[in-house]
Amino acid sequence: MSKQPNAGLSRRAFLSGAGGAMAAGSVAAALGAPARAQAVTPPAGAWPIPVLNPDAVRDAGYFGYWTNDPYRSTNYGCAYGVAGALLGEIKRGLGPGSPWEMLPLEMFKWGKTGCVETGTLCGALAGALPIFALASPAYEVEMGGDLLRWYQEAALPSREMDYLDPKRRYPNQAQSVSASPLCHVSVSSWCKASGKLSSSTDRKTRCGKITGDVGKMAAIILNRLVPGQRYVPIYGPPPELYAECVHCHIDPPPPPTPDQVRLTNSLGVTNCVTCHPDSNPVMGKR
């Protein structure tokens, strides 16, 4: 067997567990005893990440969105598209034997339409965040914060995929700024800006493009990882102008008084003005 790239887990080491399990199963079967599966232990710490091609991830993410889900007779959607594009580019860069081969793409289908079709967290974001957690468990919050803040502030979809798909040509689609990481808010904002229905092919194409856009931004963020160094966030802390706005979200609550029952503070990385129209908009929690 040829020597594989040093990607944190060699093909020989990766396959030895599976091979040992199969051998043990054969012996057990020969002796009349039931075979017992042996789990493959994933590597501890950060999983290896090569330098990614953001444009390749973008295009793969767009087409991944349209991939057919044979179980539900529909397309897999945004979470599957982003995760598949990132994993495909990661595995291409590392070569055979990387731990990323252990992740089945089917595990990401739940993120479609705002996580199990509830309109909550945008599925494109849900497809990228688990990859961040494995690639950099120490800085997944900072990386995820960058992705969510970009998503809330960017005018989407980009025009980079207008002529990518010969089957679906929707150039110069309307763009909208979601000011929220929620699928429902993001889609509704775009429908208002475009005048299109959420059930239209126009809207689905818009979400396919956003799948590509999020995949590209996620790849850019992953490329900012430097082994042995702290991740440097793209976005800084909230402007001083908004200091008063976020006290209820980041300050510890005062001790409760006997005649008062206090709730715990809210937390999150989102735009205050979405839920508090009379406040100044701010994104970030640091």
Task: Tell me about this structure.
With 286 residues, this protein is an all-alpha fold. It has two domains: 54-223, no CATH class; 239-286, no CATH class. The protein is 42% helix and 1% strand. The chain is built from nine helices and two strands, in the order ααββααααααα. It has helices at residues 11-30, 54-65, 78-94, 123-135, 140-153, 183-194, 201-223, 247-250, 272-275, and strands spanning 68-69, 74-75. The chain has a two-stranded antiparallel ribbon with strand order 1-2. A hairpin with a 4-residue loop joins strand 1 and strand 2. The model is unreliable at 1-31, 259-267 and 281-286 (pLDDT under 50).
Name some characteristics of this structure.
disordered C terminus, 286 residues, mainly alpha, two-stranded antiparallel sheet, globular, 2 strands, 9 helices, 2 domains, disordered N terminus
Rg from alpha-carbon coordinates:
22 Å
Distance between the termini: 50 Å
Strand order in the sheet with the most strands: 1-2
Order of helices and strands: HHEEHHHHHHH
- Count the DSSP helices: 9
Large-scale geometry:
globular
The largest pleated sheet is described as:
2 strands, antiparallel
Percent helix among the residues? 40-55%
- Low-pLDDT runs: 1-31, 259-267, 281-286
